[in-house]
Write a structure and sequence with these properties.
460 residues; Alpha-Beta Plaits; TIM Barrel; 2 domains; eight-stranded mixed barrel; five-stranded mixed sheet; 19 helices; 16 strands; globular; binds ligand C2E; binds magnesium ion
């Protein structure tokens, strides 16, 4: 620039130190726990992954110790959250003090901590666990605050597991054993603790092939209109006939299928079979299919239902999706959007097991249900138990108020049915009306009375 008829240079200097500091801090916070300053779960996982690779390459060994404070929740409840926070900070400090270089500690969340150490012999990991427990015991001496104690579970690489997630879960299994066996102590993971885990994995493995091997089949349970006494539709229930173990209950294998994602494949098979079966009935009864959260939350569920309806020719209004409230809670916005799209296809939606989950009124309003199914546990002896009766009455009233029909599940006795009839419950399902069975058993409903005779003649 020109200044006083002379050419000048203008130099601007900006102090970036504050910004750099802030960036550094953000970087730190992204990898550390804000309260204790320890590594957080993300950076611990990265570190573990990295150390496992290194150990695999060099033939090294590692020990993973999982810590969990004993009765931390009680401390929070009794002494307040500030005391809880202070306890976490002092645990972090006391434990870091006994660590050597090369041993890292992280806070995985809540009152869970983990330590990773290179370790030639299991004994070294046990010794560290003892030092940790001792340090915390000393910290308690003389203080008048809440007593700090922790349990420790240890898993070893490569002896116990060679993969991060398994190692973590084994250390966790050992931790629970330590807690169960008296707290304030440590346990190494043992194969027998893993027996359950392995058992589950075996089932998971078999489950993967169950559909392809023809081990799965569907049974149908009638849903009856109380006033008319007629069957209006069927709920489809999945059955697994294991070649060696025999019949396995869906209460056992559905959770495994959900956790492993196998439910996507199995659930698709169930839907396709159910739609195809229902589409073949001359009498246009409804078919209700149970659907898991994993399915609803997946991106392809609505297109899949659309495709299956098209493929099988089933009228959308005859398909009912049963979903539990608990399944909707994890990601309500996503679930809501999926359910709305299903409704737009013309599919019906029933809330299953009402009364056992959150049973929140706002969920009833927020989600587009067409029906409420009261869980069987409320129907058991409803005619004899005043409290259960009051609950069932109020759910029926709620349904009337919202204009939603209510179906009572698990009806086993005449007395229960009479109670429900008197209380104007619309629909019932249960052993009294019919046990889940092969659809052929219900031909007089699905094919009309004449066809049923033909069916029996053919069968004879
Ligand atoms: P749910 O959907 O509540 O199914 C009703 C359960 O109650 C069925 O058990 C049925 O056999 C049983 N039940 C029916 N009437 C009576 C009765 O009068 N008394 C008694 N004590 N029980 C009765 P099941 O077949 O063992 O199924 C258990 C659960 O497994 C189902 O509960 C459902 O949540 C799940 N499930 C079954 N099939 C499938 C499926 O294809 N996909 C998914 N995602 N879940 C399924
Ligand atoms: Mg159901
Ligand atoms: Mg149910």
């Amino acid at each position: 620039m020109t200044y006083g008829n002379q050419p000048h240079y203008a130099v601007a200097v900006r102090d970036l130190r504050a910004r750099r500091r802030a960036e550094g801090q953000i970087q730190f916070l992204a990898h550390h726990d804000a309260l204790t300053g320890l590594a957080n779960r993300t950076s611990f996982n990265q570190r573990l992954e990295q150390d496992l690779k290194l150990a695999a390459a060099t033939g090294g060994k590692l020990a993973l110790l999982c810590l969990d404070l004993d009765r931390f929740k009680e401390v929070n409840d009794l002494f307040g959250h500030a005391a809880g926070d202070a306890m976490l900070v002092s645990v972090a400090r006391a434990v870091t003090d006994v660590l050597d270089a090369g041993q890292v500690m992280a806070r995985l969340g809540g009152d869970e901590f983990a330590i990773l150490m290179p370790c030639e012999h299991a004994v070294a990991a046990g010794r560290l666990a003892e030092r940790v427990l001792e340090a915390l015991r000393c910290g308690n001496a003389g203080g008048n605050g809440p007593i700090i104690a922790t349990s420790v579970g240890i898993a070893l690489y490569p002896d116990d597991a060679s993969e991060r997630a398994t190692l973590l879960s084994y250390a966790d299994t050992a931790l629970y054993r330590a807690k169960a066996e008296g707290r304030g102590t440590y346990r190494f993971f043992e194969a027998k603790m893993g027996a359950q885990v392995r058992e589950r994995r075996l089932l998971e493995h078999d489950l993967r092939h169950a559909v392809a091997r023809g081990e799965m089949h569907l049974v149908y349970q009638p849903q009856t209109d109380v006033r008319a006494g007629t069957v209006t539709g069927f709920e489809v229930l999945l059955r697994w006939q294991h070649p060696e173990r025999g019949a396995i209950s869906p209460a056992v294998f559905i959770p495994i299928a959900e956790e492993s994602g196998i439910i996507l494949q199995v659930g698709e098979w169930v839907l396709r079979e159910a739609c195809r079966e229902a589409a073949s009935w001359p009498v246009p009864l409804t078919v209700a299919v149970n659907v898991s959260a994993v399915q609803i939350h997946g991106p392809h569920f609505v297109p899949l239902v659309h495709e299956l309806l098209f493929e099988t020719g089933l009228a959308p209004g005859r398909l009912e999706i049963e979903i539990t409230e608990t399944a909707l809670i994890r990601d309500p916005a996503r679930a809501q959007s999926a359910l709305r799209q299903l409704k737009a296809l013309g599919v019906q939606i029933a809330m299953d097991d009402f009364g056992t989950g959150y049973s929140s009124l706002s969920n009833l309003r927020a989600f587009p249900f067409d029906k409420i199914k009261i869980d069987g546990s409320f129907i058991r002896a409803v005619d004899a138990n005043e409290q259960t009766a009051a609950i069932v009455r109020s759910v029926l009233g709620l349904g009337r108020g919202l204009g939603l029909p209510v179906l009572a599940e698990g009806v086993e006795t005449e007395a229960e049915l009479r109670f429900l009839e008197a209380e104007k419950c619309e629909a019932v399902q249960g052993f009294l009306m019919g046990r889940p069975a092969a659809i052929g058993q219900f031909a007089r409903h699905t094919h009309g009375p004449d066809a049923a005779e033909e069916h029996t003649i053919l069968a004879a």
